[in-house]
Design goal:
Elements (H helix, E strand, L loop, with lengths): L1 H9 L3 H12 L5 H8 L7 E7 L5 H13 L5 E6 L8 H14 L4 E5 L9 H14 L4 E7 L3 H7 L4 E6 L6 H8 L6 E4 L7 H14 L9 E3 L8 H18 L1 H30 L1 H12 L5 H9 L2
Parallel strand pairs: 1-4, 1-5, 2-3, 2-4, 5-6, 6-7
Helix pairs in contact: 1-2, 2-3, 2-6, 4-5, 6-7, 12-13
This protein binds guanosine-5'-diphosphate (GDP) and magnesium ion.
C-alpha cells in the first residue's frame, strides 16, 4: 500500500503526500517503512523555523515567505504547529483565507499539525513530517511554531535557521521570550513594524543580544510588515546569510548531528525498553510494581531485582 502511495507522492500528488504525512505524523503502522524508504533522499531541503508568541503575525509572515521562496524555488512547504489556533477559531479561519491563494499554487504544500497525542512527542513528529517533505523534493520547508514552551522550542530545533518573531510594544513580555527562545534564535524579526514602537523593540532586542557576547553568530534584527510585505526581502536575505555562515562554520553539520543523535538515542531507548520488558515479562513486572506500591521494596530494589534475573 505505501509503495503505491510513495510513488504517487513522489510524482507530486498532494493527496498521497498528505496521507504519507499522516502515517508518519501519527506513527501509524508502516511509518518506519516509509521513513526508511525516504531517508536516503532527505537532507536537501532548507528548513526555516518561524517562532514567537501568538498573534505576532507568524502565519502572515510565513505566507509571505512562501511566496518569496516560491519565486525561485520549485517546491515550498509550510508546516504549521500552532496550539493557539484551534481549528474552529477565528485565527485559523483568517489563515485559511490568506493561505487560499497559496493553496492554488501547485508548488506550495501546506500542512497543519495536531499538537497533542504524538508518539514520542511533538518535536519528533514534526521532524518526521519535515523529513518526508524533504525527501519528496521540497526545496524550502517553513515550520511555524508558537514559541511558548520547551516542547515548541524543541520543534523549532528541527530548523537550520530559526527566526523569532516579536512585535512592537511587547514590553516586559520580551523578558519572557528571552528566557525561552532567544537562545535558539538565529534571526530576530520585529514584525508589525508599520506600528509605532518598532525602533524601541529593536533596541531592546539589541541590548539583550549584547548580554550574550560570546556567541559566534550575532543574530541580525530585521523589521518587517507581513501585512504589506515590507522587509520580507530583507528577512529572506538574513536567513540566507545565516545559512551561509552555518554551512561555513560547521554549525549546520553540528545541528544536523545533534538531531540525528537525539533521534537514534530515542529509538534506542524505546527498543531497549521493549526488549527488556519482553525479557522481564509482564508477570514479574506486575509483581514487582505491586510490592513497590505496598512499600515492601523500594523502586530501585525492584529494578535491580528485575534486571538481575
Ligand atoms: N499591522 C500589522 N498587522 C499584522 C502584521 N502581520 C500580521 N498582522 C495581523 O496580526 C494578526 C495575527 O496574525 P497571524 O499571522 O495570525 O499571527 P500568528 O498567531 O503569529 O500566526 C492578524 O490579524 C494579522 O492580520 C503586520 O505586519 N502589521
Ligand atoms: Mg499562526
Amino acid at each position: 500500500m505505501s509503495g503505491d502511495l510513495l510513488e504517487k507522492a513522489r510524482a507530486g500528488d498532494k493527496r498521497s503526500t498528505a496521507r504519507l504525512l499522516t502515517i508518519v505524523e501519527n506513527d501509524e503502522p508502516g511509518a518506519a517503512a516509509v521513513l526508511r524508504a525516504l531517508y536516503p533522499a532527505t537532507g536537501h531541503a532548507e528548513i526555516v523555523g518561524i517562532t514567537g508568541p501568538p498573534g505576532g503575525g507568524k502565519s502572515t509572515l510565513v505566507n509571505r515567505l512562501a511566496g518569496a521562496y516560491r519565486e525561485r524555488a520549485g517546491k515550498v512547504a509550510i508546516v504549521a504547529v500552532d496550539p493557539s489556533s484551534p481549528f474552529s477559531g477565528g485565527a485559523i479561519l483568517g489563515d485559511r483565507i490568506r493561505m487560499r491563494e497559496r493553496f492554488l499554487d501547485e508548488g506550495i504544500f501546506i500542512r497543519s499539525m495536531a499538537t497533542r497525542g504524538h508518539a514520542g512527542g511533538l518535536a519528533r513528529a514534526s521532524a518526521r513530517v519535515v523529513n518526508v517533505l524533504d525527501a519528496l523534493g521540497t526545496d524550502v520547508v517553513l515550520v511555524e511554531t508558537v514559541g511558548v514552551g520547551q516542547e515548541e522550542v524543541d520543534v523549532a530545533r528541527v530548523a537550520d535557521t530559526v527566526c523569532l518573531v516579536t512585535v512592537p510594544g511587547l514590553g516586559d513580555d520580551i523578558q519572557a521570550i528571552k528566557a525561552g527562545v532567544l537562545e535558539i534564535a538565529d534571526v530576530l524579526v520585529v514584525n508589525k513594524a508599520d506600528r509605532p514602537g518598532a525602533d524601541e523593540t529593536a533596541r531592546d532586542l539589541a541590548q539583550m543580544l549584547s548580554l550574550a557576547k560570546d556567541k559566534p553568530w550575532k543574530p541580525p534584527i530585521v523589521r518587517t510588515s507581513a501585512q504589506t510585505g515590507e522587509g520580507v526581502a530583507d528577512l529572506v536575505g538574513a536567513i540566507a546569510k545565516h545559512r551561509a555562515w552555518s554551512r561555513e562554520s560547521g554549525e549546520y553539520r553540528e545541528r544536523r548531528q545533534g538531531a540525528a543523535r537525539a533521534e537514534v538515542e530515542e529509538l534506542l531507548r524505546e527498543a531497549l525498553l521493549r526488549k527488556l520488558e519482553g525479557r522481564v515479562g509482564d508477570g514479574r513486572l506486575n509483581a514487582a510494581v505491586a510490592r513497590v506500591a505496598e512499600r515492601a521494596i523500594d523502586p530501585y530494589a525492584a529494578v535491580e531485582e528485575l534486571l538481575g534475573e
